[in-house]
């Protein structure tokens, strides 16, 4: 399956496609826009739209299935999916590394892309604040000595010896050049799962920390962590924790802020600050989660007016009575 | 650049995106639906739609750029493109192999996917009729003794030693099991280009053979060559040559039929036979070339009526006066 994500235990494939889920392997296998080959969709008028091909190439007319991928159920209900699956890799390795600065996380990524190349299947990062939360709330063990930043690198390939050699050459390079100050390697399933848990269970740890303000942002990778630092500085002691983690390889940051309880004043300090900051660097205020109900009014931070107008025309055409997942994704007209 | 195709010397990127071009590396890097990150489009009313992000992930509203990819200029004019480029591979190898049957071509592909895995960047095939045409009309040299089928395999990777070892192990396997009866390997640029020419210059050789009836078909890979055989048997001596080649790794066949000159009776023997045959196996009658002017009436062989109706509504919404590349892609209503 070309898609994998933290919610794999509870999510459904229809929802994954309807929200254009990204997740941890997008770096390797690309987005659902490329891997979904066909869809069956029920339209607002009850008719079934059959675009359920399993061909890799089909240029007969417009690619209608794209309308429904990522439209959050507002244009039709996805009832069947055909998806292109790569071969299951014969071998998987995970390296968990500590870096002294975010600049080193980025430089390690650059070296990694060159030396691991086609076997790289994930490049995730978390800051030390995330690590403290999974240690405190979930009693997970940090296998490294404390570092300001952690990186999880996964390789997946067809030849165990080759992958191991690539990974060892890479580790030698980043350790000897002091880009990485601590590291551990996993080749067996149990340890691989334990390392992934440090990254995948951050969301769960956050829910134990109090009320969570969640942001899912795309930014040019060199700007990614500046947003966390600026938000942390801005909020000061009014927030309990301001943490950053995410799919660095895709330029996707999960910025999360916790407080003992929901506070409107804190929200006012966060928004529109985070959105304006993101818009300034041409980022996306909703990278992989979708706008849903809470963020639909914020669409203009990432999309021009002409685009939103065209989206509203599409909605009116496909769902003239507004019965499909109403009040989601698109802004109410009066708000702008 | 994630896209490469035979027409690289003359095509333009706007046209590539507007026709959702596939080409020889789709197998490795996926379709433009996944690699195009952003577009700037001029709409029918003259307004500029700016969806020119360079973020890998952006789920703020509907993905409008998908409307214009592959719509052949009938919904808007693409004026700028942002595209995700993988690192340039450090090392490239090409193997050119001969097989005794199409079944062996398929079995070789299965072995290849397992043993070359992530370094496989192209799996192309041509039949002996194609080889004879490039020899006759372009004076190209066949480096192998005559075989009924030829396969071109390309690897691209980050470690020359590893890729060579993978390729050698694979070749040993397919030769020792007699899946492959002849083969040659290229690692230097000149020989690599010479081998690729055998595949990429088939179109050119065909134009020297007379009038060419061209079909660009997607089919389940195990059915791919049956269409060539059945067409050849059906047409008998009324055709000069019936040849098959294409992107086997993507299930994409180029079926070409030549005659000394255009004959309506020959066309009547080919169509709708080829389209009906393709529809019977749920294939696509236009895999990577688009319907254009000549094939727009044939859309119903690959798309249901509800889908075409929705496409026509999209066209009416985005181009109410029908001024964008008129008479293309969508069927005229009266014809069905």
Helix and strand topology:
Two copies of one chain form a homodimer.
Chain A: H1 13-18, H2 26-29, H3 32-35, E1 36-42, E2 48-51, H4 65-68, E3 77-83, E4 91-99, H5 102-116, E5 120-127, H6 128-138, E6 149-157, H7 160-176, E7 182-186, H8 189-200, H9 202-207, E8 211-218, H10 224-235, E9 241-247, E10 252-259, H11 264-270, H12 273-280, H13 305-318
Antiparallel strand pairs in A: 1-2, 1-3, 4-6, 4-7, 5-6, 5-9, 8-10, 9-10
Helix pairs in contact in A: 5-7
Keywords (chains A, B): FAD, Flavoprotein, Oxidoreductase
Family (chains A, B): Belongs to the FAD-binding oxidoreductase/transferase type 4 family.
Cofactor (chains A, B): FAD
Observed structural traits:
homodimer; 336 residues; alpha+beta; Uridine Diphospho-n-acetylenolpyruvylglucosamine Reductase, domain 3; Alpha-Beta Plaits; seven-stranded antiparallel beta sheet; three-stranded antiparallel beta sheet; 13 helices; 36% helix; 21% strand
How would you characterize the overall build of this protein?
Two copies of one chain form a homodimer. Chain A is of the alpha+beta class. Chain A folds into three domains: 6-83, Uridine Diphospho-n-acetylenolpyruvylglucosamine Reductase, domain 3; 91-200, Alpha-Beta Plaits; 209-301, Alpha-Beta Plaits (2-Layer Sandwich). Helices cover 36% and strands 21% of the residues of chain A. Chain A contains 13 helices and ten strands. Chain A has helices at residues 13-18, 26-29, 32-35, 65-68, 102-116, 128-138, 160-176, 189-200, 202-207, 224-235, 264-270, 273-280, 305-318; strands at 36-42, 48-51, 77-83, 91-99, 120-127, 149-157, 182-186, 211-218, 241-247, 252-259. In chain A, strands 7-4-6-5-9-10-8 form a seven-stranded antiparallel sheet, with helices on both faces. The longest helix of chain A has 17 residues, at 160-176. At the A-B interface, α3, β2, α5, α7 and α13 of A face α3, β2, α5, α7 and α13 of B. Chains A, B: This is D-2-hydroxyglutarate dehydrogenase, mitochondrial. Chains A, B: It is an enzyme of class 1 (oxidoreductase). Chains A, B: Its cofactor is FAD. Chains A, B: It catalyses: (R)-malate + A = oxaloacetate + AH2.
């Amino acid at each position: 399956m070309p898609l994998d994500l933290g919610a794999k235990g509870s999510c459904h494939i229809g929802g994954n496609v309807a929200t254009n889920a990204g997740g941890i392997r997008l770096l390797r296998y690309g987005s659902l826009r490329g891997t979904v080959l066909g869809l069956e969709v029920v339209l607002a008028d009850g008719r079934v739209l059959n675009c359920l091909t399993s061909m890799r190439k089909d240029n007969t007319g417009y690619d209608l299935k794209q309308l429904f991928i990522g439209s959050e159920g507002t244009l039709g209900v996805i009832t069947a999916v055909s998806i292109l699956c790569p071969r299951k890799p014969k071998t998987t390795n995970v390296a968990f590394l500590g870096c002294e600065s975010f600049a080193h996380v980025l430089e390690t990524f650059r070296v990694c892309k060159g030396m691991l190349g086609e076997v790289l299947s994930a490049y995730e990062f978390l800051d030390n604040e995330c690590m403290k939360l999974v240690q405190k709330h979930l009693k997970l063990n940090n296998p490294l000595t404390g570092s300001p930043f952690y990186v999880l690198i996964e390789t997946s390939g067809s030849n165990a010896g080759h992958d191991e050699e690539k990974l060892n050459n890479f580790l030698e390079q980043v350790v000897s050049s002091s880009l990485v100050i601590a590291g551990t390697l996993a080749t067996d399933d149990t340890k691989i799962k334990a390392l992934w848990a440090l990254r995948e269970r951050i969301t769960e740890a956050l829910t134990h920390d109090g009320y969570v303000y969640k942001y899912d942002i795309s930014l040019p990778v060199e700007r990614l962590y500046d947003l966390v630092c600026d938000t942390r500085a801005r909020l000061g002691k009014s927030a309990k924790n301001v943490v950053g983690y995410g799919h660095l390889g895709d330029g996707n940051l999960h910025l999360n802020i916790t407080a003992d309880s929901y506070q409107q004043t804190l929200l006012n300090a966060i928004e529109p600050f985070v959105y304006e900051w993101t818009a300034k660097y041409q980022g996306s205020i909703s990278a992989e989660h979708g706008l849903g109900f809470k963020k639909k009014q914020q669409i203009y931070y990432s999309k021009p007016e002409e685009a939103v107008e065209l989206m509203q025309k599409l909605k009116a055409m496909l769902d003239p009575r507004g019965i499909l997942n109403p009040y989601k994704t698109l802004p109410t007209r009066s708000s702008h």
